[in-house]
Batch of 2 targets.
Target 1
Amino acid sequence: MKKYSLEKMAQSYYADLAALMNSITATSNKGLHIGFPKGIALASRLFLARNKSGNKLIFIGNGASAAMASHLSADFWKNAGMKAVAFNDIALLTAVSNDCGYQHVFEKPVEVFADKGDVVVAISSSGKSENILKAVKAARSKRCDIITLSGFKEGNPLGKLGDINFYVHSCSYGPVEIIHHSICHCILDTIIQFKQSNS
C-alpha cells in the first residue's frame, strides 16, 4: 500500500479542490449549460432585481448546508442590505418535524412565508434531500425564483429544478460544501462590489 506524507496529502487536497473549482457547472432551467461566470452574474442580477422590488432571499439546507443557510442569510442582509431569512430556528424545526414530519420541515414555512418574486436558494450536497425537494416544489407553486446548489451525482433531482443550477463534480461532502459556500460568497461579494461601484 502506497504511503503518503501529511504534507503531500494536504497539497493533494488543495490541488483537488482547485480542480473542482475550475469544473463547476451552471445550467439554466432548461438544462442548458450557461457557464459558471455567467451563472454568477445571472444570480447576482436576479438578487439585485428582486431586492429592488422588495422581495426577499430564502436559504434552505440540512446539516452543514443549514449552517451555511444561516450564515448567508445573515451576511446578505447585514452586508448587502437585502432581506434574507433561513428557517433554522430550533423551535420551528422541531415543531414542524414533530407535527408534520421532517420531510416537510422547509416546505411548510415556504408555503407560509414565501411571496411571489422571492428567491429560494436550495443547498443540498446530494441533491436528493426530500425536504429540500418538497420546499422547492412549494416555492415554485408560490412563483418564486429558485437557485440550486448540489453535488454528488450529475443529473441529481435538485440540479434540474432551479432557474439557475450550480453543480460541483464531487462525491465528497467536504469539497462540495466548501465550494457551495464559496459560490454564495462570490454572489454576495459581486453584489457588494457592484453596489459600491454604482453608488
Target 2
Amino acid sequence: MQQQIIKKSVDGIVATRMSAEDRKLQILRVAVSLFSRKGFGGTTTKEIAQASGVSEAMVFRHFATKDELYSAILDHKACSGDKMNPEEMVSEALKEKDDRAVFERLALGALTHHEMDPEFQRLLLHSALEGHELAQMFFEKFVLRVYALLGNYITERQRDGALVKMDPAIIVRAFIGMVVHHSLNNNLWDPNRRLLRISNEDAARHFADILLNGISAGDRSKQEKRNGLKVSGASGKNASRKK
C-alpha cells in the first residue's frame, strides 16, 4: 500500500509526498492527459509539473529528457503487460491454426483497449500529425510486431491451402483498417454511436467474418450457404438466365 504524507509548502500549496515510483507514474499519467488534449507542441514540461503538483525539476528528475518520457508512455500504455501483447492474445489460436480466433481475438483486444483508453489513441494522432517521434516509436515497437505476427501466420496458412494467395501485408492492412476506423468513429467522430451501435464482441466477430469470407480459399457457394446468404438482384437474374 502506498504511503502518502500531506504537507504544506512555503508558498501555501498543499502537496502530497509519494514514493518515487508512484510519483513517476502520476507524472506519466498527467503527461498523457495533457498531450492527448493539447498535443506535444502545445504542452510544456512546466504545465506537466503544475498539473502534477510538483516542480519542473521533479519532472526531469524522473524523466531526464522528453525522449525518455515519450518512451515511458509507450512502455506504460501500449507495449508492456498482457493487455496489449498481441502474441499473448492469440498464442493458443496460432498453435491450433484457428483462423477465426486469431483475427477475432486481436480485433476484440484492440477495440477493448481503445474503448478503455481513448486518450492514448488521441495521443498517437497528435504525434502523427505533428510529426513527433512518438508516432514512429509506436510504429516500431507495436505496429510492426502486429504486421510480422499476422503476416507470418497468413503466409503459413497460405502454404496450407487455407487462405488464397495474396500479399499478406494487404490482408493485415485491411484487417487493421476495419478495427482502427471503428475505434476512431466511436472515440472521435461519433461517440453517441449514431451510425452504428454495436458491442466490441459483435464488431470483432463481424470483422473476422468479413475478412475471412474474403480471403478463404473454399468454395464460395458453401460459404454463402453457411452464412445464410441468398443470391439476389442483378446477379440473381443473371444466374437464372444462365440456367
